[in-house]
Amino acid sequence: MLGKGGGAASGGKARIAVLVSGGGTNLQALIDAQDKGIIKSGEIVLVISNKAGAYALERAAKAGIKAETVLRKEAGTQEAFEERLHELLSENRIDLIVMAGFMSILSGSFTARYPDRIINIHPSLIPSFCGKGFYGLHVHEAALEYGVKVTGATVHFVNEIPDGGRIIKQKAVEILDCDTPEVLQKRVMEKAEWIILPEATEEICEEIVRGK
Ligand code: GRF
Q1: Which member of 47, 74, 110, 164 has the lowest number of beta carbons within 10 Å of its beta carbon?
Q2: Which DSSP letter does residue 107 get?
Q3: pLDDT, tens digit, for every residue of 180-192?
Q4: Mind spelling out the 3-state secondary structure of 167-206?
Q5: How far is it, in rounded angstroms, from Cα 17 to Cα 211?
Q6: Which H or E run includes 45?
Q7: pLDDT tens for each residue of 120-167
């Protein structure tokens, strides 16, 4: 069960839930890493999407992973939406929540329930190009507009501040003169996101299993 030092993880693998909203290439990287044994201390047992029909749901189905859709609009309020998420996470005895392209900001009262048990991937080197409004292509547009020569990706813990939790892992990626936001986004995914998200997930799962 979530929380430091115990629960479902004891003696076995940490139970992972992946939160998604879109294409799910980061989810795929996690599934592939599990198949290759890069993630060996945890198991993805649940995928939750906040968008109906997200392609990530198909990826989950193909990998035989249970998937659920929870819509903010259907829930009515942010509180009810988060309560439904919490119910699903509890029912499935989740130890670690991995936000992989999850396009919804969770409230401080939600994140406070899971200290050091929610991680997120952000497509820049935090503290650059992060926080409110910096999502998707906007992050890469901002990096190109500023003219930085190096960008990258960051995996961090999630707290009440958007992209503000403690940094777990970062990887730098070079920017080329001819880059468009789309080309840069793809390079950051391939050379950073899809590598450090599985690595960080394994590291945290390992700690959970050891009961840290
Ligand atoms: C990624 O760039 C991730 O860093 C950001 O949203 C994007 C999601 O892509 N938070 P995908 O759904 O994993 O393909």
Answers
A1: 74
A2: P
A3: 999 999 999 999 9
A4: EEEEEEEECCCCCCHHHHHHHHHHHHHHHHHHHHHHHHHH
A5: 18
A6: strand 42-49
A7: 999 999 999 999 999 999 999 999 999 999 999 999 999 999 999 999
List all residues whose CB is within 6 A of at least one atom of ligand 1. 20, 22-26, 56, 100-101, 121-123, 189, 193
Helices (H) and strands (E) in the chain, counts: 8, 7
CA 31 / ligand 1 centre spacing (Å) = 15
**138 catalytically annotated:** no
45 to each of 31, 42, 102, how far by Cα in Å?
11, 9, 17
- DSSP character at residue 64: T
The tens digit of pLDDT for each residue in 30-42 reads 999 999 999 999 9
Ligand 1 centroid–CA 124 distance in Å is 11
| Residue 140 near residue 153 (C-beta atoms within 8 A) | no
Report the atom number in ligand 1 closest to the C-alpha of 25.
Answer: 14
- Under DSSP, the state recorded for 158 is -
Q: How far is CA 149 from each of CA 15, 125, 140, 174, 180, rounded to the nearest angstrom?
A: 38, 12, 12, 6, 13
